[in-house]
Amino acid sequence: MRRRIGGPVELSLHTLLRGLPVGLISGIGGVLGSISGAWFQRSQSALALSNLVKLLPDATPGDRRARMRAMWRNHGRVVTEFSCLARLRTPSRIQIVGAAALPPPGQAVVIAASHTANWEALSVAVMMDGRSVASIYQPQADATRNAIALRRRRTLGWIGMSAKGNPLREALRHLTAGGAFVIYIDELRDDLVMAPTLGRALLLDGNIKLAARMARLAATPLVFADCERVASARFRVTFTPVPPSAGGIPGDVKTLDAMLETVVRARPEQWQMLRSLTF
Predict the structure, then answer these.
(1) DSSP class of 166
(2) Among 31, 161, 237, 261, which is least packed, fewest CB within 10 Å?
(3) Distance of alpha carbon 14 from its chain centroid, rounded?
(4) What's the pTM value of the predicted model, to 2 decimals?
């Protein structure tokens, strides 16, 4: 969408949307995402359909096309929901499942998260009972969208650690202070989606290994988290404990990969990396 809208126009749209009802903001994003996918992102749509064939071999072609269109609607909603991110911070918008997997606020935890539904809502869910949340972020190529995202996250108290700095030392300090460190384990690196394996070779590298390593270094619980869009701008965020593996960090990575793959196969249309995955 950015290529067609332009930075100043997108910034103006973001400002105008902020005064609208949350559901309407999300709905506008869904429409814009549909238009973007149908007219301006045909190569990514083709890749998403190809991936859906592999992920859902028993689905009909019509079902796969419907899921591909749903993927673009979700993507558009994520973009516009930055305009109302603070207003998602309520139980009426975010249902939390498995809260007992998290230690009490003030105690450190490493959360291995997924880019599913609106993953920003996942971090909001962690903050809802008073936790201090920090995460490593990769600056977006789109300067306008990057500035909007950082501004909206920081208004919630989110602590961003640029991947271009020294984020590991900062993350350990944050954990030592009793904070929550959220790290997204399905990142895109050099055009490669690092996790889950989905039939590919398991990679003992990237954020998925870092999550396991950080939890062991800081002697903190490791928790897997995913976000599901259940309706418009309403979400279900699920936290699942990851018991330490007898196999050490490689065993933890294998467990996290299996958890992530289960989520991706269940709702591929809500997975941000569906249009980037290559086998």
Answers:
(1) -
(2) 31
(3) 20
(4) 0.94
